[in-house]
């Protein structure tokens, strides 16, 4: 207890225990241990194995390390083994063909490493992997365009149809360019099985790709494909089911896949591919939410455009640039109120990833920066998520959920009257850029977001030639997509690009003055990030204050309070001409309402007495003290809060609120009771975070604070 002293005596006894006779007390001297020896190098089709003779164990090394370097001596790969024994094999898988050298080091803690002469690893040939082929476009008349991922070190590619190798001659012909090909002469109305093989000029070939099936038609048509890729995805739990003109089902079950605004996504994606440079489009569709389960806010479903996709079935991270209309965790702040939607509807835009970033990440798992350092995200990566639906805004600060058909336990903040199960999105691009819209039943926009891209570079960085548009699901979400409409036009024939519209920023204006007052003279404090004019009305509807607010500056508006609850309503008109420091304009230009409620209570007298058993209904006299929370809330300039002796058990937060101020001439004081024999103690019982004084001109002394949660500061000013 505070004020008590104690002493503790420790008795220390020494116990010695002899080591067993069979365990020698010391290592073999390091200078007596033989150096490592490279016994041999084995070049395999997919790896280089280094065979090493070196004792690892009590009398030898702690571990042995091998380093694979290129022929210039630049270290590329490092592997270590610590298993006890005299013979070891360390295997490397280089990322390219060539000749290498291997060096070996034996390591013992506190000693200099032992090494041996490096050994040459000559003639490693990286094996060719099978491409992953997809059908890009049904060209009509029995012709189809296909494409595939580039295979490292492939010189050419071969295309097979129904197990027959094609050439530029014959009934069915193929014309190959880079990682794509156009096949002509396929039989109309019949399924053809197409696969691709990577080749070296030396004659080496890769395994055949998995077959893709294509039914040729007389008329051209877009071809829809599916892919599962990204962190935590699996082909078992993620996928797409689609056929012809029937609705497509997209699913991501068992917690697999995820939407992560600040990193990479794992999704099941139903998509078609367009030319990034020559084609504009309008894609729309209706998404029915079949079911979803809340876990951690990484659930997601919606519409998207991506500039690259991953290999089907691969859970490796895929850094790309993207624009999504998505039902996922969406948070935003308006009028000082943070709205957190466990699932809301928003626009998620990721930009700044380059082809160099993607290459660096594939090679090293890191990103190289212009200053010579490296990091875990691309240097120019930018991510923003903004709401497209704000119906929860009038409900004020809180946690909500918009999406219905949830499974299991209801998500936090579920609003039964806002359980949206059908969403309609439209995603388009013209020569100015991209437009994402969330639509109502009549097709009118509820919310929209634009992305300027007149030079067609935003989504032409990682894959410079293609964009991928479609619908997706991630983590515990299952959807059905119907009423899909896709219109593609020739960018050269469309209207030219318009001027770049100013960027927008979310308007955030709020009252930040105290919610309680001990004086009828009160100052409303408005703070925001934009310019505008405000008019304030009292609860009788009369205008009692108005003024011009400036971004980043507090506007102080004096008003009078009456005893009890005082609700002020205000109308704020943003200045549409105001641009912030980045040249962005406010996203709201229409007038909107604010409210602020203050409780006024006058505790009379110069001294306000407080005791551990005081109540909120006391009058602050010695015989009818108030509780400490009431005193700190309603004390006013010139008054003194007197804490009677005893232990005050504080269960939660305790504060003198911001805006409850004394003055230099008449501060608010907090003191111990001069007539008491001991100091008062504020005991937070391990669950409260201490006492905070947010107001100005307070003088405090004479009390102790103990047992704050997690050893938080006892007093903060």
Description:
By secondary structure, the protein is mainly beta. Helices cover 2% and strands 46% of the residues. The protein is built from two helices and 54 strands. The strands form 13 sheets. Strands 18, 21, 23, 24, 25, 28, 29 and 33 form an eight-stranded mixed beta sheet that branches. The longest helix is centred in the middle third of the chain and has 10 residues, at 355-364. It is flat. Mean pLDDT is 91; it is low at 1-19.
- Model regions low in confidence, pLDDT < 50 over at least 5 residues: 1-19
How many H/I helical runs? Answer: 2
The amount of beta strand, in percent, is: over 45%
**Mean pLDDT reading:** 91
Tertiary shape: flat
Give a short account of the largest sheet.
8 strands, mixed
Using only CA atoms, what is the Rg? 35 Å
Helix-strand category? mainly beta
| Helix share, percent | under 10%
The overall strand count is: 54
For the termini, the CA-CA separation is: 25 Å
Please describe the topology of this protein.
Blueprint: E1 37-43, E2 48-56, E3 63-70, E4 75-81, E5 85-92, E6 98-107, E7 114-115, E8 119-124, E9 133-140, E10 143-148, E11 156-161, E12 164-165, E13 173-177, E14 180-184, E15 191-199, E16 212-215, E17 221-222, E18 225-229, E19 238-241, E20 248-252, E21 267-275, E22 279-292, E23 300-306, E24 322-334, E25 337-351, H1 355-364, E26 367-368, E27 374-375, E28 382-387, E29 398-400, E30 422-429, E31 433-439, E32 445-452, E33 466-474, E34 477-490, E35 504-505, E36 509-511, E37 516-517, E38 521-528, E39 532-537, E40 543-549, E41 555-560, E42 564-574, E43 585-586, E44 592-600, E45 607-615, H2 628-634, E46 640-643, E47 647-649, E48 654-656, E49 668-672, E50 681-683, E51 691-693, E52 698-700, E53 704-706, E54 715-716
Parallel strand pairs: 25-29, 35-43, 37-44, 45-46, 46-49, 47-50, 48-51, 49-52, 50-53, 51-54
Antiparallel strand pairs: 1-2, 2-5, 3-4, 3-6, 6-7, 6-8, 9-10, 9-17, 10-14, 11-12, 11-15, 13-14, 15-16, 18-21, 19-20, 20-34, 21-33, 22-30, 22-34, 23-24, 23-33, 24-25, 25-28, 26-27, 30-31, 31-32, 36-38, 38-41, 39-40, 39-42, 42-44
